[in-house]
Amino acid sequence: MSEYSFTTTHTVPGTFARAGVIQTPHGSIQTPVFTVGGTKATVKTLTPEMVKDLGGQTILANTYHLMLRPGADIVEKAGGLAKFMHWDGPTFTDSGGFQVFSLGVAYKKGIDAVAHTEKGKADNAKASAKQLAKVDDEGVTFRSHLDGQTLRMTPESSMQLQWQIGADIHMAFDECTSPLASAAYLRESLDRTHAWAKRCVIEHERIWKEHKKAGKPYQALWGVVQGARDEKLRRESAQFMASLNLDGFGIGGVFQPEEIPETVRWVVEELPDDKPRHLLGMGNQVSDLFLGVEYGIDTFDCIAFTRQARNGGLYTATGRINITNAKFKDDFTPIDSQCACYTCKNYTRAYINHLFKSNEMLAYTLASIHNEYFVVNLVDRIRESIIDGSFLEFKKTYLATYFGKPFTL
Amino acid sequence: MSEYSFTTTHTVPGTFARAGVIQTPHGSIQTPVFTVGGTKATVKTLTPEMVKDLGGQTILANTYHLMLRPGADIVEKAGGLAKFMHWDGPTFTDSGGFQVFSLGVAYKKGIDAVAHTEKGKADNAKASAKQLAKVDDEGVTFRSHLDGQTLRMTPESSMQLQWQIGADIHMAFDECTSPLASAAYLRESLDRTHAWAKRCVIEHERIWKEHKKAGKPYQALWGVVQGARDEKLRRESAQFMASLNLDGFGIGGVFQPEEIPETVRWVVEELPDDKPRHLLGMGNQVSDLFLGVEYGIDTFDCIAFTRQARNGGLYTATGRINITNAKFKDDFTPIDSQCACYTCKNYTRAYINHLFKSNEMLAYTLASIHNEYFVVNLVDRIRESIIDGSFLEFKKTYLATYFGKPFTL
User: Fold this and answer.
1) Residue B210 sits in a domain of what CATH number?
2) ipTM of this model?
3) A288 tagged catalytic
4) Could A365 and B361 be called an inter-chain contact, meaning their C-beta atoms sit closer than 8 Å?
């Protein structure tokens, strides 16, 4: 069983892009990498063999969801997250912070990425009426979205839960603020996130000592940089996280594609080069993957690709199609003739259209395989382009084909 | 590409049980066999590779469902049922007769297996109010359960549709009557089923000549024996079907386990030994498989096993369990420790319980793999017991363990 480590193997001059390897007790991860979403200890509609087959290297589950069901104790008794879900590879857990907030008080403050749209405002108003969560300096009190039970999460309990769940890489418990929060609230919230990160490190080290004594492998802790759209706060937050004994970093609260170049750069310029960086909860834009990598991101997660798949929204090299459209009823070509995924190798648009129209569950499986392969494979190709020196050229040609016009960010 | 044939390789003295091989243009089927349900050209929640992996040899789809969606013409243009659904093996289609009736007029006459129960009566009354189907000597007029469109099915159109869908084995279009129908109605209905079978054979031969000229492979036609619980009618029906140019036989309208020994025997005694026999739409009783084989059945179909799987009802060697039960939350053993299916080799009851509680689609996939393996594998073991001469002993010990007491039928 190998220890945790990160090594950079290739860089792209004039950018922050790099290729590398994260070593974990459950195996290595070639970066940049798209982590496959496994929120509730399952990748929706897919077996772990399907995830391997489509190129998935690592799965990201969620502490909030697993503490509610089946309970972190059940996952621990099962032998940890990977064993519980029959996944033979590295795993991440998100801290649960975002979910604790996004299902409660944070909505009121507009954490939702679409808070500035009319629908976002309506959703926030609705969520706010429920008042599911309340933050104080000690932690967060919230109500379970499953049964309304009042629960508490603190930096310490998040660490304890994550060690129980047993992923290879944990995230520190943070407060994710809205891009629209007031300057005063951002300041207050960032101070809290920093104080919590410190407490996370202390609790993490305490638990690690116990585990070490028991002969158990290390589980890494990554801190989360916040600071919304404020350069000063972002740099301060990155510097603070860099000063702590952390194994890597998440960058939270970056919601819009056009924010990536600037916001990620501020952070990456302050972080040490010898630790990996994760862009937390990116959008569903293909361009975000290129921009993230260009500005120094090593790992990504996003559940939008598979969610869109379940709604029939399928990615191709020239943009997205909706497979439920009547014009595909007698289209006997694959979703994307350039795609080498299991679905495209074996099924036609006509068949997948039929499965969707018939509400057959295999529709969701085949569509999820395709979209997840699309994004995992795209990040793989980005990694290869870093290694062979063609990254910027690949970005240019790929995105021009995808959007049907030059991409300028 | 091999022609259609059936060969018996082993028999069990003192019973009608036999092992054999059905040869089709898409490969051979070792009998007795459980045909996997693929009603709408998909085995619910499973990829064809999963079906192969669990031991599935052949898939049975439904003409009624496929004519409505996506349309038999689409399946034909795709290259036929097997190619459309990416199944590399033999296929059956049911004629659509049962579905045409069961969604309409037949309900009024009590075709439902539970028509004699209070719930069955209520269901029938409800269905009857809708008047979805009307039978005459020429065919059946019915309304689509999808969009209410009025449609017509005749013996000829059923044959045309089945040749378009292109399964290796077709079923003749018949009228399935209730076990509670009057003697007069049974007589009238049986005469109609016989006249229809004759017309099916004529139309089948006409289409085959066209296909042969075009160099296309043969598709077999099996006739369906009806006659409810009446020995005279059953024997007459079997004799009539035996007199036609048919490639095999279905036995329809046998609904209760305790009817199998007698009813199937009446029919099998009249049918030629050199053609295979299918028990249409058996129940979900494990004992039915043994009884069917004992009285001469070669092929079975039943969608109840996978439907139960999707509701959490899972088969074990000692009976059925419901995996959603709270007691399985921390049970880290497989569904059935004697089972060698993919699910039992890789997942615990606790994990599957978690997936069901979380409404995760993988729950249905893992449960369906298990139940379908259970029944497919059981029929495989029955075949092996015929070959090695232990059939009756296997029946006795297996069912005594399953029911927890000796089985006496």
Assistant:
1) 3.20.20.105
2) 0.94
3) no
4) yes
